[in-house]
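Practice record 12: protein with zinc ion.
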Amino acid sequence: MTYKQQMDKKLDEIRKKSQVRILAIESSCDETSVAIVENGREVLSCVIDTQIEIHKRFGGVVPEVASRNHIQAIDNVCQEALRQANITFDDIDLIAVTYGAGLLGALLVGVSFAKGLAFALNKPLLAINHIKGHIASNYITHKNLEPPFMCLLVSGGHTAILRVKDYKNFELVGSTVDDAVGECFDKVARVMGLSYPGGLNIDKMAKLGEPCIEFTHKNILAGTYNFSFSGIKTAVINYVHNLNQKNQEINIPNISASFQKLVVGELSNKTIKAMKDFGEAKLVVAGGVSANSYLKAKLLDLCNKEGYNLYMPDLKYCTDNAAMIGSCAYFELLNGMECADINLTAKSTIPLFNN
Ligand code: KG4
Ligand code: ZN
């Protein structure tokens, strides 16, 4: 029997168990995280070592620096996750790891560590799609949430409206044709001189301002479920550059509030339209931008008006974390996912619904 066949046989045994404990690893960007998750919904521990302070001085994530810091952190983070869950490696059924999408060097640290661990412990390894992990963060927060539902996916790398039909099958309703919304937040923050991570700082600044500025941009995708953020981004950048050239002061709170209102309006209006058109009643939000307080307030308001149920992850599971990877891995396991072979490698991009 090959190594993979042996591990797949073990997975079949694990599928029959009433209690499955997964050690999950996430290192796709600038968070080194290890979590222990039981039956996809209970987080026994989730340790997140963030590199925000390190990357702040560069104004964004420097891939090479991220990889080096993951290498330094990962073993301690793993030991700490076991300690907090009060278990040892013997109590783990399998290992799960994010294999994409993300920064290649950063992902490789998690993937290599996970492969070494799985091989040494003689336990199966599951390779998990980061984006599907973000969606699963809601299964941790909302214990009774089950598909089908509509999902608004808003992260640093992706923006999409999806129909999640069951734990495995997804249908793309609409997506961005250019920038992801998180990327747009980060670039607008940068031009105003706000520090990394930009999205969070725009959220904070917007609370101090008024949405009184009209940015001129062409709404090229009106009437569709697709998004375009690059025009909005350029309009804000031009607005700021214009004022800078005239030596006029820029009002960061008002620009933040106006930009945020515009972007959140796009996201929420198109999502609610999709809910109506497809006859869905449950809306699930996933990805780092789900931490945005204005997006939450706006969707809550619209969902209340329409009689829809809104689900958003707990704040600590909005941005990158390993608990969501452990949750996703559990449902992938139940849906028959095969174990990763020893030649598993990281992928910087993967189609949204591949694994
Ligand atoms: O999902 P995530 O942690 O990483 C990816 O998988 O891409 O998302 C990170 C993105 C960043 O662009 C960050 O600026 C944005 O999420 N973000 C926010 C907020 N918190 C994080 N954007 C708007 N408002 C926030 N409060
Ligand atoms: Zn993410």
